[in-house]
Amino acid sequence: MAGLVARLAVRVSALLLVAGCVAVGAQDPQQGTTDWPATNYTQSANRYSPLTQITADNVATLQRVWSVHLKPADFTGGLREDQAIPLVIGTTMYLASPYGAVIALDATTGAEEWRFEIPDNAVPSKRGIAYWPGDGDVPPSLLFGASSGGLYSIKASDGTLNAGFGESGVVNLKTTEIMRTFTDAGYLLLSSPTIYKNLVITGAGTGEGRNFPKGTGPAGDTRAWDARTGELVWTFETVPGPDDFGYDSWAGDSARDRSGVNVWGYMSLDTERGILYMPLGAPNDDRVGVDRPGDNLFSSSIVAVEADTGQYLWHFQLVHHDIWDYDAQSAPLVVDLVRGGELVPALLVVNKSGLLFTLNRVTGEPIFDIEERPVPQSDLAGELASPTQPFPVKPEPLTQMTISRDNLYQGEPQHQAYCERVVDDNDMKLGGPYMPIAVNRYSMSPPGPAGGINYWGPAYDPDLGLFISNTTNLFQPMRLVQRPNDTWFNSGPLAGVRRFGDPDRRLPCGPTPWGELVAVDMETGDIAYRRTLGVSDMLPPGLQDTGRPSTGGVVLTASGLTFVGGSDDYRFRAFATATGEQLWEIRLPSSVEATPITYLGADGRQFVTVVSTGGGLTGSEVTNDEIIAFALPMN
To answer: Taking residues 1-28, what's their average pLDDT?
Structure first.
């Protein structure tokens, strides 16, 4: 406790000392609200709520208050997974349903208030919606993408379309500038837009892999639209043109019509300074780069731009010439760190590589040193893999970075033998970070495209100075095979999207733990703790404490609690943020595949709500489709 008090004193002193020259950019206009007004709580993406009613002393008494099934009674298809994080504004909860609707519920009781059905059997963005408070002339509104390629604006009060937005409430995202000549290609908005002033800022869903020759297809550009009219305000070209900075990082004409390099996850903002941070994904093709020599900016990078104009400010590339599908896809955390007695504006950046980079969010310069280290080269003719990749000196990797025949799963004899047999029978090439995919031979280079920290991203507790995230150690075999037209692709019974493990028993084959809760002390850059997250019920007693893969993130509260579902073991848990001690656990009908939220209900109680729809990285089927709200018992 003395250390925490000292740290808080330094932080307060730093605020007073540098208030005149260093803006407190981590604070949103909405920071401190008892609602849940944005996907990641605020545009700084910290997911740190000021609520303190639920504490370490009473969290074990949480009880289910209400639940609502998402699947409509007249829907004849199967259950669908939902990764969307609900919003709560005032007394109303808004959520995107995978059954083709946006729904408003009473956040305290779960009673439905209204429902907007998307036309043409389209479904809303799978990872959420955005709230815009309006401008006096246009009322508070919800904005979201649909699988049809539209950007919708509806009134938050009743779910009716804002007729003055685009064409009768809808903007067509599939413009000529974006689609180019690839008019038959799919294009949609995968995640919630980012709201800044009266701008709606959208990423892009261009698909992955080689859908067209040379990895070409729709552009992955980021765009900003007027929230009142739907008019296009600015476009940031994520693959530079011939006259732009970064174009020379694409050899020859390999930048032309290049697809991918898109924000398919979440963005974040320094609202005080008006800086937008875009996490951009890998180029298409994201496993083979023989047709795109060079570092390939701005792929797998964080790019900072002026939020008002889209003007480039700086970038940091997490992966050069990405041939591993190591997208930057989660919202960078906008935080303030105390360094040398001064408050430093920082950006905490992670991607699938399992590495945490700490940057000055104004300049892009490292706060903890970053080294370019040699990495293995490809055995594919013409594949000019980058000779080095960036590694932070601190902290150490958050996830497992190597795999060998000697460190496969060890425990239950049946599964241990299965894993050894898979490796031996397929003559797998196993290695360390950034080992390129082998030719005509299965290979693995951890953590793999499903490992590390994915789209859900981490969270940050400013009082404790702790970075918190659930992590996944789930590897993926890959193999390059040549097509008849001489191009190469990742193929084979063990490749594609199959993970390294037994799909029938849903047991990975890498070393345990397969999932962890990890905390980093951002003052020192040291790991504060690692806690195994998740159990494997299909293993015998005594061998179940393995950790499990995750697909949803953590939420933190000012009372020192960390709530997380995520792991595919059907559990929802609470931990002490400072120590990682587990305080509460409940088994649900299915896994929580989205990040929880917390808010204050109309009855004065703090609620914690989760979307529980099963599914998951290891191939389990959706077995439930509820949104479930928990709170303390009524006095």
So the answer is: 38
State the Cα torsion 511-514-515-521 to the nearest 10°: 10
With a CB cutoff of 8 Å and minimum separation 6, the contacts of 590 are 570, 612, 613, 614, 615, 622, 623, 624, 625, 626
pLDDT of residue 506: 92
Alpha-carbon distance of 32 to 51, in angstroms, equals 9
Whether the pLDDT of residue 14 is over 70: the answer is: no
**Please, are residues 519 and 527 in contact by the beta-carbon 8 Å criterion?**
yes
- From 626, 515, 506, select the one nearest 564 (Cα to Cα): 515
Mean pLDDT of the chain: 92
Query: Token digits for 431?
Result: 């290695």
Structure tokens that stand for 264 in this block: 């398919």
pLDDT for the residue numbered 613 = 87
What is the chain's length? 635
Q: Residue 441 pLDDT more than 50?
A: yes
For 340-458, strand residue ranges (E) read: 342-350, 356-360, 370-374, 388-392, 429-430, 443-444
- Render pLDDT for 54-113 as a digit per residue (tens, 0 to 9): 999 999 999 999 999 999 989 988 899 889 999 999 999 999 999 999 999 999 999 999
* Dist CA 229 CA 226 (whole Å): 6
Sheet strands (E) in 463-596 = 466-472, 480-482, 488-490, 501-502, 507-508, 515-521, 526-532, 554-557, 561-564, 571-576, 582-587
Query: At 119, is the secondary structure helix, strand, or coil?
Result: helix
State the average pLDDT over residues 34-46. Answer: 97
**What is the residue extent of each domain of the chain?**
36-82+396-635
- Strands, E, within 283-355: which ranges? 301-306, 312-317, 333-339, 342-350
Torsions phi, psi of 51, nearest 5?
A: -70, 140
Which tokens hold the place of 405? 């025949």
Question: Does the bond joining 86 to the residue before it have cis omega, within 30 degrees of 0?
Answer: no
The number of C-alpha atoms within 13 Å of 183 and in the hemisphere containing its C-beta is 2
% of the chain with per-residue pLDDT over 90: 85
pLDDT in tens, 382-411: 999 999 999 999 999 999 999 999 999 999
CA distances from 76 to 72, 80, 269, 340, 625 (A): 9, 12, 41, 61, 14
3-state secondary structure (DSSP) of residue 575: strand
- Among residues 179, 120, 106, which one has the least CA distance to residue 152? 120
Distance CA 216, CA 220 (A): 11
What is the per-residue pLDDT across 333-381, written as a single tens digit (0 to 9) for each?
999 999 888 999 999 999 999 999 999 999 999 999 999 999 999 999 9
How many C-beta neighbours within 10 Å does residue 274 have?
15
Tokens (6 digits) for 183:
């008019």
Whole-prediction pTM: 0.95
